[in-house]
Structures are given as structure tokens and as C-alpha cells.
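Example (one chain per record):
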Amino acid sequence: MSIDIFEDPATVQGASSIAISTSAHILSDIYRPEHNIAIWQRTLSKELTKNIDLMLAQEPRLALVQSVTPDDAAQWVRSKLEGYVCADALSEDIALIVDMFCCLFDVKEAGLRLTRLDSPMCPKFHFDRVPCRLVTTYTGRATEWLTNDVIDRTKLGAGSLGQPDHLSGLYDSDRSIRQMQPGDVALLKGSGWEGNENGGLIHRSPHVGQDERRLLLTLDFI
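Predicted structure:
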């Protein structure tokens, strides 16, 4: 098995508009209007992580983009990773996540991106102009985010006046920054979600040190 899952009651933090649990069922809490993020915490096996790292060392330009369904996701990913030890386990795990995403939102397909990153893709805090996006980091540092109660949204984008996040006044202290862990599966509610036009989750890519690599999976509506 590639993942270890431990069931426990959901941890819901209402003031911070988040829902976190080691149960995959927590992802359905994204439908609650008070939540703009839901995180399924899980731990990937050391073997899978090691084999993914080996693949990334040999694939400096890995960037897979495809519309997939729960039925064809595993086969498509496996065909693109043919020859790598992680291909079977990783493709099956991705297919599981695609199936969960499509079931949860009652859609037949999802827009998949699987990307090797050695620099921040979105280095400044922002929100996504989509209804909802699924993200999971298989290896390397994972996504950073802020709760609603610590941010000043007027400091986003042009409101930062060109200042970096830590100087713009967007948040009070670096202690306010939360970070997912490798393996975590998160749903990030964007401004395109009906009724959430002003509440999209504020997040950014983590800083990546020299010789560090990430493998990021995202799923989007098509």
C-alpha cells in the first residue's frame, strides 16, 4: 500500500474557516459555507516517497496535463511514467483522488496537472478565481496558506504596492502562516464558488531551497 490512513473524528476550526481530519470524509465539508479549505491529512509510505524522488532526479521537466476520468486516470498516468518504479503506486493513488474529486462534485472528468517544481510556482499569497481546486504535494514542501481571521484582503495583488508579503500588511506575523504536509489532500475554495466571491482561500507556493524538488498534483473543473 502506498498510503497509511488513520480514521479519527474531524477537527473543525470554525473561526479559521477550515476543516482538517485524517478521514477522507472531511473533504465534503468544503460544501459548508463557513469553510474555504478542507484538508485530508495522510502519510505517504516511505517507499513511495523514495521512488518519487528517484523519478524527479531523472525527470527535470516533468509536466503532465490532461483531462481525465476516474476510469482512465490510472492508465494514462502510468503510461506517462512508464519505466519508473513509482509508476504503479503513484498512478493508482492519483486515480483514487480523481475518483474522489469527481464523486464529490458530481462531475465526469477533471483537469489534471502533475508537475515537478524546483522554484515557487505562485510565490505571493493570492486566491484562485475558480470554484474549487484540489492540491496535493507528493514530495517536497507543501502549500502555505492563511486563515481568514489573520488577513487584510486589501493588501492582495496591487494592494501590496509592490511590497513582499511579509511587509505588505497582508498578515501580522509569520507565525500566522499555515502549511500543509506532503501527502495531504486539500480542497481550496476559490472566488468562483457561489457565495464565496470575497472569501477565496489565500495561499501560495512554498519557498524551495537549492537542490529541493516538489511533485505537485492539482485537479480542476473543466
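Caption: The first helix runs from residue 46 to 58.
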